[in-house]
Amino acid sequence: TNYPDIGHQREITFFVENHSHALRYGRLEIPRKPRQEVKSFSASDLHEGHVRYIHTDTSTWAPHDRIVLTATTDSADNLTGIHINIHIRHPQSPGSSLHRNEPLSVTENEVAQIKNSHLQAANVRARTEYRHGIDFNSLKIVYKFDIQPQYGAILLGGPSGSAVDTFTQMDVDSGRVWYVHDKSESRQDEIQLTIQIINSTGFLLHSLKEVFRVIITPVNDQPVRLVGPSVIRLTVPRGLTVRLTKDKLEAIDDDTPPSDILFSILDGFDDNIRLVNSSEKSNVLTTFTQGD
Fold first, then answer.
1. Quick one: CA torsion of 177, 178, 182, 188, rounded to 10 degrees?
2. Whole-structure pTM value
3. What averages of pLDDT result for each successive group of 10 residues across the chain (292 residues)?
């Protein structure tokens, strides 16, 4: 800060110390020197909010960085070893502790590759390494199944690889992990996982639970089936209404939800009989869904 000193103020200057564990993953900038790393700044820069830390090393997942400063002024001893700790927050998938836990999309009866855009736990590994004082990227990330997928399998090595119940982040990064669907009329699947962070001797340092989801895109390979007779008879008392319900008219398609099964009225009604929506009886229907 600035201190009053007999009619004038003495300016304090902060110098960035050379420190092996400081500013490893970013740099300091001030507006008057854009995109340049600064090694010193004034107390005025600090008070006016001009000093910024810019995270630059996106190749690592370090969760922390540090700034070490020396404060100097003309009329006082230097103050050394001022430490500022910086927490680096890496993005995470919503509802997950992982940097990436995004659903995999696969077409029914097909295979799909699980990429590191779907599963990426390097942020968890980096936090573990920092906590234990271990060099970054020295620990292994293992995905172990607690519950296998119900409508498919995980293959290691490619679309024709072997079914497994565990794989590593390195397997994912190298494109060796695939999901194969089992041809069932399923719309989604999931794998309940334990993510383990282990060292070179296999010792477990950290673990956490996650659910990896699979979205299955159906193939309309079966026609819509009508349940019951194709001719429906309704008795309507004069001047009244009768509700058309599922027990009178039902169509089923294993690949299509009821809300997407559409009925179109082609012919058969005159001015005295019409279909309407129960909530808007003034609107005559020309189409409706099984969901309706």
1. 100
2. 0.65
3. 48 88 89 88 91 87 89 89 90 92 95 97 91 86 97 95 96 97 91 96 96 90 76 78 84 80 74 74 79 82
